[in-house]
Please model this.
Amino acid sequence: MNVASASIATETHWMFRKSSLQAMGVFLLVVAGSLLALAQDTRFVYMLVYVWFGLAYGVLLQYGRFCMASAVRDLFAVKVPRMAVGMMIAVALYAVVAAVVTLAGFSTFHPNAMGWHIVIGAAIFGFGIVFTGGCASGSLYKAGEGNMNSMLVILAISFSQAIVVSASGWWDSLVPQSWVDAAAAQDMPAELTITQGWFDIFTAGHIWNLKGATTADMFGMAESATGIVLLNTMLTAILPVAIILVALYVFYYRKGHLRRTGKTAPTLGDEIGGMWAMFTSSKNTAIAGIGLGVLAGLHMYVTGMLREHYGIFNFGELLVAMGYTDGLSIQDTVFDPGYWYITTQEAQWGGWIMQKLGIDSMDSIFFGLDNGLPNPLLNAPGFMSIGIILGAAVMALARREFKWKLPSWETAFFAIVGGTLMGIGARLAMGCNIGAFFATVTNGDPSGWVFLFGMVIGAYVGVKVFTWYMDWSDARKGSECGL
Amino acid sequence: MASLVNKDIDVPGLGCVHVVRSVDCLGAMCPRPQLLTMKVLGEVGSGAVIEVVLDNPTAVEGFPALAQTLGCTHLATVREPDCWRVYLRRGFF
Model:
């Protein structure tokens, strides 16, 4: 029988503990920064929506120790479905709220192009997350806990993406001539040098020829409530979630549960009770899943309303109106998904620093045509990522879990290599487990399930390699302690 | 890294418990703590108690669920200023 966790009693009231005051300090810093931005221009409220949703994501991610990397990795590494269950709860809730937002006409979602690139990119991404100890958003909230290893992962993701999307020269030999020809046939401005740079050729010569659609789009029912609710929400999100939850119960939880409860001939009621026990085996994770799902949907709603209020489609238009024109794409746009997204803004951080160092990448489609390279102080989704770090820091400090942790040489190596693979994978798949999975399947885009499939394959191989490495490493050290 | 301890430890809420092995996971990123614990549990006898020392909040959160899967009993998680100590008994008792 499990015994409840014990904790050491403290004599100081929690409100007056040093860590609680530090948590309050971080929170007040965000409040002060927000007020300062609004004092500059009230239209910065658009950016502050990202900040505060990011802060809330960070609080919930840290509260539930919500790590999507462990959702797939733990199934293979230790056969524990806890986080996979939490992730599925979040998907179901996000899908329901996304349906309401779409029906209200405030959805900011755009489907991803479907193709093999998703499986390959997601597999590389899934392999990388096993070695970094967290996915892209997991690395952000762990950085908020003071984990410098995760900060290295963020750096690696940022720069690897920036290099991948702007690299040219020998990289160009990686793509077939047919893609070069297809890219050349695109009617694009000369300054983008569209046939130079392998990622530009990949994007213009391959991705742009693929189709992306929600399930409702495929059946010509994107505008109808029936299409949105039945095809996008129920068929594309809720049904697969239900099937995955039943599979997790049957293959990972049921046997142990029946053994613990002593049921040899379980009834349907016992099975339902078992499913419920699986859902509630980690209440913090389940609560975080519910909160994240609802918030992610609301985020789209609030951004959609603000876009309507200001009469814009992209934050770049608002920046121009406020007099900030540096770093915009040639379409006067910046990256502005309007929902939870992680990797592209990190690529922009890396690209912006590289630009300051004299390496210009604005001739790439990724930065020059689509996302721009805005100053990080004007990068709205970038502030969402910073919000996640700060929100996690607030929660970690309040729970006395904040701790500066220096990486070892080994974990630093894994962080840089794994983070680089995550960056490469995320760009090939057009997003990470948040942007290319979580945000897609919940909005009726089945490409997200393809991403999950690829990520699972990558994580499976990653766990095998990691386990082999641990055994090899332990054997080499001689294990003086008997391992 | 795991070490032989074979000593009695006073666990808050449980009293005196005889711990046979201690697994040091300080500074370790997932999934190393979980894999190390799985390995050590496979090396101790039924009913034996092991201690896992962690400073990774995400790993700590998952240990009760991990215990169920590994066929052991999660006895307690003790919070200390810089780490957690998780006590697991092999087998369901």
